[in-house]
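User: Predict the complex.
Assistant: Input components as received:
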Amino acid sequence: MRYAMVIDTKKCVGCSDCVVACQIENNVPIGYCRDWIVEVTTGTYPNLSMELRSERCNHCSNAPCVRCCPTTASHITDGGIVLVDEKNCIGCKACIAACPYDTRFIHPEGHVDKCTFCNHRVEKGEDPACAAVCPTKCIYFGDIDDPNSKISKLIKTRKWKTLIPEAGTEPNIYYLI
Amino acid sequence: MTKIFNRREFIKISGIGLGGLALANPIFNKALGAVLVPDKIPGIYSKRIPTICEVCFWKCAGWTHLNKDGEIWKLTGNSDDPHSNGRLCPRGTGGVGMHYDNDRLKTPLIRTDKRGKQVFREATWDEAFDYIAEKMQIIAAEHGPECVALFTHGSGGKYFTRLLKAFGSPNVAAPSFSQCRGPREVGFFATYGEGVESPGRLDIRDTKCLVLIGSHLGENMHNGQVQEMSDAIDKGALIITVDPRFSTVASKSKFWLPIKPATDMALLLSWIHVLINEKLYDRDYVEKYTFGFDELKAHVANFTPEWAYGITTIKPHVIRATAREMANASPSVIVHPGRHVTWYGDDTQRTRSIAILNALLGAWGRRGGFYYPEKVSVPDIPHAPYPKPNRSWKDAFPGKYKLANLALASGICDATIPNAKNDCSFKGWIVNGTNLISTIPNQKNTLEAIQNLDLLVVVDTMPMEIAGYADVILPECTYLERYDTIRNSPHRERTIALRAPAAKPRWNTKPAWWMAKELSKKLNLESYFPYDTQAEELDWQLKQIGSSLEEMEKIGVKNFGREYDDLFPMEDLADFEFNTNTGKIELYSTSLEDEGYDPLPKYTKHEDPPEGYYRLIYGRAPMHTFSRTANNPNLTDLMDENFVWVNPKVAKEWDLRNNQEVWLENQDGIISSNSIKVRVTERIRYDSVYMVHGFGHTQKQLSRANKKGVSDSELITKVLVDPEMGGTGMRGNFVTFLTEEPMGGAV
């Protein structure tokens, strides 16, 4: 059992619905966000291409943030979701420095905050808020260990990439390209 | 009773309405806190209430979820709703910000004179209604009730429409017609005897080829269409995008045609030429359903791709290849009619050529093309017939705009400026949910019209610029705090949707229904509002169609299925009579000919930018709806200013860098009030600049939007008017850069 996300950049229009839905769902204070949109344009006019993608914590299987946490506040759950236990977090920022994806921030209340894959929703069998809201249905969530899951089938049949694979973090967000 | 000001001054609504009434209700103190100090236990809610989104005109149905304290927490889509399919767009999701925005209008305000200075004073609702009713009655007595007009872009407008019609005025205008989709409706009506309507009868989910002419789906978040486009991409649909800008959807397209702006007509005519000359059109369909093919063939004989290349800069082989792709997909192909199409003044004719292309491809009435929508027949509240008006706005334009089948907002604006030829100029405006200062181009003209009014009532939730010119401001509660008219829009199946209040109105704000009813009492028109509450009125209507308010409050959306099995009536070449003079699809339009207009679309050369100037192109960002969302705390967090997009070649010439602040000056010497940051990008042509519409506010009370970015509207002073229907073409304006703050230029 390993939760993962597959995001289809061919469908993403970069509308930021995933961002605002996450902020409201998780009461992320205005001015902060747990997911965001990246636009990469290549080429020169008029020979251009552009990729739009929604980024967030990669819930890495080999997570440097978890390894470096001095208080074990950063931890991995049974389903592979990387979480921060606010009560144990001392705000030392070691994890922020360790994360190659820049996904973590200090919440105004002093602890580290980031994407939880909407653990509270996943526990109820729901998709994370970003996946549930996406108007283009480009965000898929599921169990990558289950060969029959939608996400497993997608990465079997489509061309994909992960971000900064050379960091060796074994990220669990896959981008269809 | 009240002095008529001989010169209306703009009043900044600052520091008013924050007084005694604010925060009187303890529950809303907590609600305010919810924004600033987040609840750390998400996912707990006790209740959901049906709503219809009011952030844009798509009107998606959804649910307002309350948190455990009974406060509004979040909004989600209703999965039974064909507009949203259970997924709201970012604006809809962020709609909670409209409720929690503390910059909202909070109590009625009346313009008054204080030691020679015009100011707003707080008023009771009764005072405000007395003031308005008295002025309306004076106008009716002196000039006739027709001299009061309503401008509306919002659900509440329906109730003011009833009030105004009961009062005796037919002059109800939505800027969505003359400033947006009007030419499209007229162009399609002239061809098919039917318009595209809203949300639009496009079968995008099953199309094999989607052709977008300047339409930037995905940046305009027309929710259902964006969702269906994504479904179509999944199924391998091919997209062709014609746009001077490398839009989001251009990046998803097999073909991006970076056309020289203002030349779309030449490309469309050339595509028609290729379809006919290469015999790629649907011959059975054309023979059975259309009128005027031979005339069309002769008309386009010379419009070769080589001819169009010289005009559009699109290479002939690309024009041919794209025409062939469309034909390959036929009839499951859509040449998208667009939505905001008031560009160059020949917009009815341009959308006509789009309509003709779809007919040649056999797409109208076919799967993957255009479907035949249905809607429920919801009876109106029984009341006495409306009095027959003696005049309408059209009387001010004899012989002009003959195909305008809805009132022109810009026309009413023009007819407010006294003119010896006019029988009557407008004396009173009620403006509901539309910031006319940003909506109607040529602000100087709008302000001149406003100076000639005896009464200007602004009904809004936010202190937009137009409110600063009002005599009376009526603060409307947001859509999350009120009932509204039943949503009953045409779609594949007949559905209705309900909006119900999820919270009490914050501060001293009220729903439009209540305002219109209270005003009807003052005007002795109460018989038009026979119910004591809006809920009773809705319940009566719903019971006539086999539902009830109780049922709708539980389900939000009710699906009545289809009445007739004719979603795609031309699927098997079945007999069909179109609602046109000839009963056929009119490739050659007899109705346009009868009125003295071109029966076949012609290419007209439009003006090019002068040396050192660039064509001003504007568009949408997915997280904003015009200026309606410009101050929304959740949505400004995603985007709080616009940028001017500049091609790197142009940037080099002007020595412009990313994020550099510049001012823009247009061809008429109008300088932007604010500065705007530069975005140097390959995604725009070298002869144009681009910005997102809806920014550049100058109203201090809009704390998040004030002085953020530039208003394109302000720079649109040249208006190219559509002779057929009076649409205001806005893409004939050119701007240049000022790299230093203009001396005294910024107001």
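The longest strand of chain B covers residues 45-52.
Let me know if you want any component modeled separately.
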